[in-house]
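Z., the sequence and structure:
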Amino acid sequence: KNTLLRLSATSSTASSRPVMAAAGHDVQLPHVAIFPFMARGHTVPMTHLACLLRRRGLATVTFFSTPGNAPFVRGQLDDDVAVVELPFPDHVVARGAAECVEALDSLFPLPAFVEAVSALRPGLEVSLAAARPRVGLLVADAFLHWAHASAAALGVPTVAFLGGNMFATIMRDVILRDNPAAALLSGGGGAEAATFAVPEFPHVHLTLADIPVPFNRPSPEGPIMELNAKLWKAIAGSNGLIVNTFDAMEGRYVEHWNRDHRAGPRAWPIGPLCLAHGGTGTGTGAVEPSWMKWLDEKAAAGRAVLYVALGTAMAIPDAQLREVAGGLEAAAAAGVYFLWAVRPSDADLGAGFEERVEGRGMVVREWVDQWRILQHGCVRGFLSHCGWNSAVEGVAAGVPLAAWPMGAEQPLNAMLVVDELRVGVRVPVPTAMATGGHGVVGSEVIARVARELMMMAGEGKGGGGGEEARNVAALASKAREAVAEGGSSWKALEEMVATLCRPVEGDTPKPTK
C-alpha cells in the first residue's frame, strides 16, 4: 500500500495544527476528509467509505477521530488513510465527557452529548485550514451539524452522512409535515395503535407507535426536536446527502426524495458500504478473536448458528436480558446454536446461564466485527434490534432477520425489512410495548422465534429455505451488483465525487468573515 497522507504533528490540544502532505504521484486526486459521529454504528460505515474511496482511486482521504476512538478507527481502516486526532479541550475532558455514545447509559442524553462534541469545532477548523493538499470535500455525520458550517466558511463543499435510511427519513418528515397525531389523538383511546396511510405511499400504513418519540406527538418539543432542527438545517445547507443503501433496497424512496420530496439536497445511495470492508478490526498480527474460532468450529461440525445482537447505544433492562437468555437456552436445547453479542459487558444474564449453554451457545461481552460474523458461512439467522447498519449488513450478507426494534427509527426499519422487502420476520411484543409503553418479551417468545428463524433459513445462504431466506439471498446478490463496477452504487459514488469535490489546485481559502 502507498502512504498517501502523513501527519507531521499533533498536540494534546484542540488548537493543534496537523499538516498533511500527499505523495507526489497522487497529488492530483481530490482530498476528501471524513468526520464521523462518535458512535460505532456511525463510525464503522464511514471507515468503509474511506477504504472504498482509496481502493477505487477516487481520492486521498483523511479521517478525523478523537484520541479515545482512534485505536478502533485505525483498526478498521486501510493503511493509506490518514487519521487526524481532534482532542477535546481540557475543560471538556475535566467534566468527564465520554468520547463515544456507547459510554453513555442510554440514548436519552444524546442532545447533551452532541452539544459536548461541538467542543471539537475549533480543532476541526484549524485542521481543515492547514490540510495539504487542501480538502475538496468534507463528509460529516449529520449529527455534527456545526461541522458543515465550519467547512462552508472555508469554502469546502460538504456532504451529510445519514446514519439511517431513506424510508425512515421520509416517513418521519411526512409525520412532522402532516401531523396525523393531532387527528388520531383527538379521537380518544386506542390512538397509538390506530393505522393511517401515508399519502405519497398508499401501500405504507403506520401507527403512531411506529414513529419515534417525540415526533409522534401533536406538538413535538424538547431537546430532541431542537437537535432535529439543527440537523436538518445543516443537511439543507449541505451539498449532498449520503445514504448507506442501494437501488434494489430503497430505490423508490431515494427517487422520491430527489424528484418530489426534496426536504434537503440530493441523496446519493452508495451502499452497502460494508461490502467495501477495510480492516478486520483485529490489527496486524493480532490473535484471531475467540468468537471467530468458535464459529469456525461450528462450521466444521456442520452446525448453523443464530447471531444475536440487540444494539450498543440503547440500554436493555436486566430483566429483559434474562428473558432473552432463557429463550436462547430453550432454543439451544432444541438444537439452535447461537452467538450472542451482549452490551453492557457486565449485563446480568442469570446465574449459571453461560455454563449451561457452553458448546451450544457463546456469549461475547466485547465489541465484535459484526460484518465478519454475518459473512461467516455457518451464520444463517440474525436476531436484531433492526438498527439500520444491522439491517443493511444482514441483507448484504444474505442472512434473514428476526426484527425486534427497541426504539428510535428502528420500528420503521423493521417495517421496511419485514413488510416491504420480506427478508425477515417480527419478534412479537406485548401490546403495551407495541404502543410505546413498557413490557417484557418472554423467553418462550424468544425461543419460538429463534427456532422458526433457523428453520426458515434452510440449509445455507442462498440454498433454499423459506420465502424470507430466498428473498434475502436474491437481495444480497443485487447488493453485490450495486457496488460492483458499473453498478448503481458504484456510479453514484463516482458521480458524487466528480460533481461535488473541489479540485486540489490552488491554496486553501481563508475563513470568511
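The chain has two domains: 5-165+238-278+482-500, 290-480. DSSP finds 20 helices and 17 strands in the chain.

Let me know what you think.
H.
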